[in-house]
Design brief:
There is one protein chain. With about 220 residues, this protein is of the alpha/beta class. A 5-stranded parallel β-sheet has the order 3-2-1-4-5, with helices on both faces. The radius of gyration is 19 Å and the shape is globular.
Amino acid sequence: MREIKNIIWDFGTVLIDLNIEHFRQQCLAYGIKSDINILSTHFSHIYEKGLISEHEFFREAKLLFPRWVSYPTIKAIWNSMLGHIPEKKIKLLHQIRKAGYAQVLCSNTNPTHIRHIWQSHGPYTSQRFKKAFQQLYLSYEYNLRKPEPEFFNLIIDQMGWLASETLLVDDNEHNIDTASSLGMHVLLYTSDESLKYFDTALPKLHAHRAGAQSK
């Protein structure tokens, strides 16, 4: 395989902290009437592909809760799984970009979550994060979602990249398997220890860091 020149980053867990257990506990605390997985998988997958509107999503989600639970409360529960983007990860992204690597974000997400992330982090941090990437590929804007190979192929084609020069960093093994089958390099994220890969694996980044330390 060729040398890595481009990186596709996943968002949830890899770059932003998630607390799915807190979300589950919030659902239980407000008396969810159905299997929580229905809310966090089937409905969200349709929403993440932009096939239903925000209003339609929450109208259906409300049916899973007791009648007294309001729409704003359900929206707050839905956003409760979202944590923060650690500063150290923003710094790493900018180090990689300054070293000459091209980067995009590819996320299975929805407009409710994205709006909450930018609002909760504020304009300064949000813009710093976004500027680390050439493009943000958000599933609901493209009617595609990982691990559909069409999503990865769209990115490769639009960016003018070669799959053999592109690395996917993702915590989902299905996404990793699809990217690998398309000829991409892959890094399965299991914890922050996984990011130590970047200490030596990218030659230009390693040289960039060495040059910065010698100044």
